[in-house]
Amino acid sequence: MVKKYRLGNPIETDSVVVSIQEEKSTIPYFDIVQGKNELRFDMDENDHVFGLGETVRGINKRGYIFTSKCADDPNHTEDKRSLYAAQNFFVIWGNGKGFGMYVDTPGCVSFDIGYTDTNVFFIEFEDFDANIYVIDGASILDIVKEFRGIIGKSYIPPRWAFGFGQSRWSYMNEDQVREVVDNYDKNDIPIDSVYLDIDYMERYKDFTVSDERFPDFKAFVEEMKKRNIHLVPIIDAGVKIEEGYDVYEEGVKNDYFCKKENGENLVAAVWPGKVHFPDFLNEDARKWFGDKYKVLLDYGIDGFWNDMNEPAIFYTEDHLKEVFEKIKEYEGKNLDIRSFFDMQGMVGGLANNDEDYRRFYHEYKGKRYRHDKVHNLFGYNMTRAAGEAFERLSPDKRILMFSRSSYIGMHRYGGVWCGDNKSWWSHLLLNIQQMTALNMCGFIYSGADVGGFGADVTEDLLLRWAEFGIFTPLFRNHSAEGTRRQEFYRFTDTESFRNISKLRYALIPYLYSEFMNAVDNDEMLFRPLCFDHPEDDMAYEVEDQLYVGSSIMIAPVYKQNANGRYVYLPEDMKLCRFRSYNDYDVEVLGKGHHYVKAALNEVLVFIKKGHELPLATPASRTEDIDYNNLNYERF
């Protein structure tokens, strides 16, 4: 059962697609804190808190504070309160009962879950305006299903998007792309796509292609298509300010860009230098920008990823002027600890400055809103622009789309990847723990950069990460310019990377079927153990094992130099220790605690009693997988 309540004068977000009559009574469970923009819930010692989508820390969110404010921050350390997403749905569950809540507000809101007071959950609002949805159910899974039913069906990508994708910032020209594909094929490692980061563009201009680097892009796309390789270019949120550039000139002419209070177009900066931001909250601007994807669709492109859409801001022209003026005051002075840090902070604070997000406005649903009041809707509506355009421009063909920034509602138009993570073992664990909360919020097509985006990966970390990544719908290896190259074929143990990649392709029939079941029936592809076994106290303690679909549980190894791991089984299961799709040993393990060996090249998969795991014979591309002749491992 879902009930709707109102706080103040909420801004509609279009995240809920079902009409629900507003209740006249007070919000249940939470009390309004008098004199403050806060709601309060007194937690029982056995209450667990799940959800909030893409955040740091574990699956149970109790004990920290999370702020819903889409942030361009590549350093996902434990002290961070905001990442790229704002996904305000959570479930509180303890002692065999609980409830869910969706706090639908596009502005800044914090979830203080036992941080200020160990046993108190505070929801703190910058503006006390929100639609509050309270969901009751007999179980956690019932509550999630009810919530998913009101926010609309999740995005479905093309089937090839379940194949492996290789990315790097940046493959600079068509020869480098050919080299990547050639080497994967030469080493018999399956691959379906290569991603093009910002350097494919002409001087970082959206919907352009560099003639120097890709002199005949249409022919190159066709060449790759003949090899069953899909090219997936990036699209950024900022439009370069340049006379003669059609996107810029059309946006200025038709007033499609975000404006300052005085009516001038905001001048900010990202990759191309100075840019304007399209007003994605404006329906006309959204349609205009979405139709621009046709430029690349006409080349034969059938996949995209949207980036920098929090929006990321290197600086604004206005704030940069202010900083330059202030720095002049320090010239010739003896800078002590205070003055030096003040000067350093001014320069370091240019990027993603809070004041800059208050400098521009949106035209949204017939009203004008300052950006910070609707900040969390920006990336969502950029991807919405693309998704709605694909329905117009390519109604008979699915197009791959995923985004960095998101809000609930965007799940209907695209998937997400978890942004600029690092090549850290802790981020492999973070990837494992983020998947369930993303699924709760409707983001089923999701994944993180396998191996980590920033820092230098080690071979063992990349292999262990790939062993988990083969289960995530988005399976992409991506790394930053200047870091160690991490294509699978570059490492000593190429055979293990080949075998693990082939296991992914053997799993695709199962993963795709379970993905579609999760979408069609508003269920979760990834689930923590306690969601399926709420009566098992030990299941709540386990945050590094996941059910994937209806038949299997996985227990990834995420520690360096580990030759196995401890596993808790809430029921009897059949262990398959995979070295490749056709090379594995099996044993039945009883309910309880086990130490299970897992060499560096082995993947642990547990099959539930009464279930089966279908395995295909791998092909080098998803298109060539034979779905009619599957092998089955049963328990």
Task: Tell me what you see in this structure.
The chain starts with a strand and ends with a strand. It has a nine-stranded parallel beta sheet with strand order 26-25-23-19-14-13-12-28-27. The protein has a six-stranded antiparallel beta sheet with strand order 29-30-31-36-33-34. It has a domain at 2-151: glycosyl hydrolase (family 31) (Immunoglobulin-like), CATH 2.60.40. With 635 residues, it is an alpha+beta fold. The protein is 24% helix and 26% strand. The radius of gyration is 24 Å and the shape is globular.
List the main descriptive attributes of the protein structure presented here:
Glyco_hydro_31_N_dom; Glyco_hydro_31_TIM; 13 helices; 9-stranded parallel beta sheet; 635 residues; alpha+beta; 38 strands; Immunoglobulin-like; 6-stranded antiparallel beta sheet
Give a short summary of the structure.
It contains 13 helices and 38 strands. The strands form nine sheets. A nine-stranded parallel sheet has the order 26-25-23-19-14-13-12-28-27. Strands 29-30-31-36-33-34 form a six-stranded antiparallel sheet. The two termini are 36 Å apart.
